[in-house]
Amino acid sequence: MPCATPVRARCSAAVTELRPLRLPEDLEPLWRIAFEAEQAVHPDLVTTHEEVRTLLEGPGVDMREGVRVAVDDRGEVVGFVATEVDPPGREVRVDAYARPGSPTDLLALLLEHGVRYARGVAVARSAEPGWVCLGGAYVDDAAYVAALGAAGLAPVRRFHRMHLDLRTARPQAPVLPEGTTITVVGPDEAAQRELHEVLEEAFEGHWRHVRHPWPEWIAWVSNRGYDPTQWWLARVDGVPAGALLGDDTLAESDTAYVSMLGVLAPYRGRGLARALLLTAFEEARRRGRIALRLGVDTENGTGAPALYASVGMSAAQTVEAYELPLP
Fold first, then answer.
1. Which of 18, 55, 159, 302 has its CA 20 to 30 A from that of 73?
2. Residue 98 has what DSSP assignment?
3. Looking at residue 124, what is its pLDDT?
């Protein structure tokens, strides 16, 4: 894998240094770059500090080797690349950001480091075949789409980022099917483990889903706006049947976020997912949130896209997933 010492490389007319991450002082300039990069493509987006922090630290992030900060010859931070390793999924996620107006080959330089790091992970785990490097781009971000393609990644799947404006949407009370209860999970580990099992089973068969053992799963969700008072478990006649996991990743922009929503196959078609979603809407309003967001696979076979449309959500952005087999 790459060494942790700074690397100096020619980037167009400027010399750019790729150096290791320095927290906490790097968080603010890197957030600013991510914010400006996304605003350049989607001015309606408000990138939060928590979104950027989760890219830089966590159980799957190697802060010493897998993250690099780009500094120009004036000493200004102009970009960064972050990687996250998911051993059960055999994935290395790569995300790169460059300040708008930076040299056109800065993204290439950053992605080169990310892919090289991903290859190193796959080589070190050569006994586990099937590793991939994953990336993602807004379909209308021409510069990043081109950079991912040049780095060898190919588009494989599309996702919508769904949005609901809670200020204008008509409130709808959850209607619980007979025998159904919805309760807040909270800090109780036993209830959290029930939610974990429901979601893992509900997502069986979804694109690139693999089961994550409890220790790895809870470590992952605890690094992303962790707030189990926004986790709900639906039971039918006392049996766990569906779950919703919300978090505070977007709270800085007064937006609620649903990171996972799933219903076990035998209980689908009864309105459980709708009731869970409307419960999250109610709580978001109670907390003073102005919007709610979530992501959905456009090829989801459970009817999720139609559900979200039925409760007033619309696709605000479309993201394409990119993949490169490793090593």
1. 55
2. E
3. 96
Domains of the chain (ranges plus CATH)?
A: 7-158 (3.40.630.30), 170-311 (3.40.630.30)
Q: How many CB atoms lie within 10 A of CB 143?
A: 17
Give the model confidence (pLDDT) of 123-142 as tens digits: 999 999 999 999 999 999 99
Structure tokens at 213: 């053992």
- DSSP secondary structure string for all residues of 117-165: HHHHHHHHTTTS---EEEEEEETT-HHHHHHHHHTT-EEEEEEEEEEEE
SS3 call for 208: coil
Q: CA separation (Å) from 41 to 38, 49, 149, 186, 189? A: 5, 18, 18, 37, 41
The torsion angles phi and psi of 19, rounded to 5 degrees, stand at -115, 160
Quote the pLDDT of residue 7.
Answer: 45
Dihedral (Cα; 121, 127, 132, 133), 10-degree rounding: 10
Residue 10 pLDDT > 80: no
Say which DSSP state 9 is in.
Answer: E
pLDDT in tens, 184-223: 999 999 999 999 999 999 999 999 999 999 999 999 999 9
